[in-house]
Amino acid sequence: MQLIFTALFTHPYYYSVMKRILKKIVSTCFFLTLAFKVFAPAGESFILVRTAPVEPFRSLIQAIGMVETQYDTMAYNPLEDAVGYFQIRPIRLEDYNSRTGSTYSMTDLFNYNISEKIFLYYANEIGPNNFERIAKTWNGSGKSTIQYWEQVKRFL
Questions:
Q1: Residue 97: how many other CB atoms lie within 10 Å
Q2: In Å, how far from its chain's centre is CA 148?
């Protein structure tokens, strides 16, 4: 075995072949190392991931929509003059407009996004942890709010 090894490295032809192969291996390793360093992300890099937005009131919005209008954004209650998905009355709209400086009209409330914005304004004043209080406050006052909350609770 040692004789073959000595013959390969001492013979000029085999020595030059082995030298070229070794040069190719070393240069390939060098270029691969350089390429990985150039194209690999730095240690300080970070990854951005798009996540779904947090919507703490989503289930309450759906439950109130079912109780108020059965998800009808074009609903109108002539007895209370209540409009839209959340059945917003003129007094609530006036209060919202005066608090926020908005100028929405009753016809704007047929637009779901505007109605939701008004609902969320009042819901955020109470906070996301008390759905019962939000629902009762949204409904008004008195004993009817207890029954209203029971209806809303069925759809949560």
A1: 14
A2: 30
d(Cα 15, Cα 12) in Å, to the nearest integer? 5
pTM of the entire predicted model: 0.67
By C-alpha distance, which of 57, 58, 55, 61 is closest to 115?
61
Q: Are 112 and 85 in contact (CB under 8 A)?
A: yes
pLDDT average per 10 residues of sequence, the chain (156 residues): 56 70 78 62 70 89 95 95 96 97 96 96 91 93 90 94
Q: Which amino acid is at 95?
A: D
Tokens (6 digits) for 17: 């072949």
The rounded distance, in Å, linking the Cα atoms of 110 and 86 is 9
Amino acid (one-letter) located at 22: L
